Amino acid sequence: MARILIADDAPIMRELLANLLVGGGHEIVAEARNGLEALELYIKHRPDLVTMDISMPVMDGIASIRHIREIEPEAKIIIFSALSQQNMIADAVRAGAWDFVTKPFYENRVLDVVSKALATRNIDAE
């Protein structure tokens, strides 16, 4: 079981991800509506993994990734974006995202990416 922070400005996306991840045996420690909240909640909760939307108000996902990685260089962050945001996906990966999932997403893809990210986190810790 992992402790996960969900960051997305769309309430329905947060709910869908939370239900999927809880169903997969994980704990949702917090939900953020924008990149600034994601940064603040990351500092407060130090989750094992973050799911991050790219396009959010106040602070976008890419800026939030950069700030989180300054605090925790090994942070595992999975970016979520629409297919039309390919250039932003590349920017997010350069900023330190571990992987990405395109919206709309397949449940199996999300669970697979989360599982792989957590497996590498466990290896990194050893």
Automatic annotation (TrEMBL):
Residues 3-118 form the Response regulatory domain. SUPFAM superfamilies: CheY-like. The keyword Phosphoprotein applies. It holds the Pfam family Response_reg. It comes from the Bacteria. The modification 4-aspartylphosphate is found at D53. Keywords: Phosphoprotein. GO terms for biological process: phosphorelay signal transduction system. InterPro entries: CheY-like_superfamily, Sig_transdc_resp-reg_receiver, ST_Response_Regulator. PANTHER family: TWO-COMPONENT RESPONSE REGULATOR, TWO-COMPONENT RESPONSE REGULATOR ARR22. This is Response regulator. It comes from Cohnella fermenti.
